[in-house]
Design brief:
CATH superfamily of the largest domain: NAD(P)-binding Rossmann-like Domain
Number of strands: 12
Strand order of the largest sheet: 3-2-1-4-5-6-12
Bound molecules: nicotinamide-adenine-dinucleotide, the ligand O=C(O)C1=N[C@H](C(=O)O)CCC1
Number of domains: 2
Largest sheet: 7 strands, parallel
Structural class: alpha/beta
CATH topology of the largest domain: Rossmann fold
CATH class of the largest domain: Alpha Beta
Radius of gyration: 19 Å
CATH architecture of the largest domain: 3-Layer(aba) Sandwich
Strand content: 25-35%
Number of helices: 7
Shape: elongated
Length: about 260
């Protein structure tokens, strides 16, 4: 297999550390540099304070971004402008940002994968929820994450609602006259689907999709107890992005 040169942005983060280990332990991946704005990372490779400095030194085949919503968006745009493929795990991008990045990737003819959740089990949970929504159109999503998470709702919850939207008509759920006596009690809403975000220490990444019918409730749940659960997805994305000429949003679109 051909060697893939990888740079990682956010190498000291919870996900970044796991990604550094993954790249170091994969025979056909080579970690060539890391991007750390504080330049504190020590992965045994050159550390750059910005993506521009990194690219001026050497262009990797693939950039893995695991930073923050604002930084991740800027990095992905900069990478595409430099002709570098990206695998983006960072969440919290707006629909407009995703659209802009897709257009840029197509204009440049460069692969890019933005995956709100790299865990195979989470992708199945989203797909099963999409399938079930045809039969149970009344749905609420409960996503639960650690309390250091910056974005809410989670990228996974947004993606789940988007996938359900592809097969289910928009629907007003609950009583038409319901009123919140405490603002936010019914959570956020996407096409009638209510999304509730829990943030607590001790959690990693969890999601429960609840589908209600007459006299029954179907619950589809996924739990990531450790960030290693995301790494097989990161590996598949790094390999697959080498073959792409456009932006793919969601791991479900590249898994066979
Ligand atoms: N797609 C997935 O499966 C998945 C799984 C877990 C987390 N995430 C997402 O990944 C992102 C990172 O999550 P985390 O838990 O590792 O967060 P974290 O806070 O532990 O790590 C983020 C890292 O980014 C670094 N950073 C910030 N600005 C930077 C810059 N300008 N240049 C380089 N590095 C910079 C920070 O120093 C930090 O080390 C979040 O958006 C999160 O939602 C996605
Ligand atoms: O820890 C996080 O932050 C996670 N973010 C992703 C999301 O927003 O869906 C995926 C799971 C972990």
């Amino acid at each position: 297999m051909e060697m893939i040169k990888v740079s990682i942005a956010g190498p000291r983060g919870r996900m970044g550390k796991e990604a550094v280990t993954l790249v170091e332990e994969t025979n056909h991946f080579e970690l060539v540099s890391v991007i750390d704005h504080k330049q504190e990372a020590s992965a045994g490779v050159p550390v750059f304070a910005s993506l521009e400095e990194c690219f001026a030194h050497e262009l990797p085949d693939v950039l893995i971004d695991l930073t923050t919503p604002e930084v991740g968006y800027t990095h992905t745009k900069t990478a595409l402008e430099h002709g570098v493929r990206s695998v983006v795990g960072t969440t919290g991008f707006t629909a407009e940002q995703l659209e802009e990045l897709k257009t840029l990737a197509e204009d440049k003819g460069i692969g890019c994968i933005i995956a709100p959740n790299f865990a195979i089990g989470a992708v199945l949970m989203m797909k099963f929820s999409q399938m079930a929504s045809k039969y149970f159109p009344d749905i609420e999503i409960l996503e639960l994450h650690h309390d250091q998470k910056l974005d809410a709702p989670s990228g996974t919850a947004v993606k789940t609602a988007e996938m359900i939207r592809e097969v289910r008509e928009s629907k007003e759920q609950g009583h038409p006259d319901e009123k919140e006596t405490l603002q936010g009690a019914r959570g956020a809403e996407m096409d009638g689907i209510h999304i509730h975000s829990v943030r607590l220490p001790g959690l990693v990444a969890h999601q429960q999709v609840m589908l209600g019918g007459e006299g029954e409730l179907l619950t589809i749940r996924h739990d990531s107890f450790h960030r290693k659960s995301f790494m097989s997805g990161v590996k598949v994305c790094v390999e697959t992005v080498m073959e792409l000429k456009t932006l793919v949003y969601g791991l479900e679109n590249i898994l066979e």
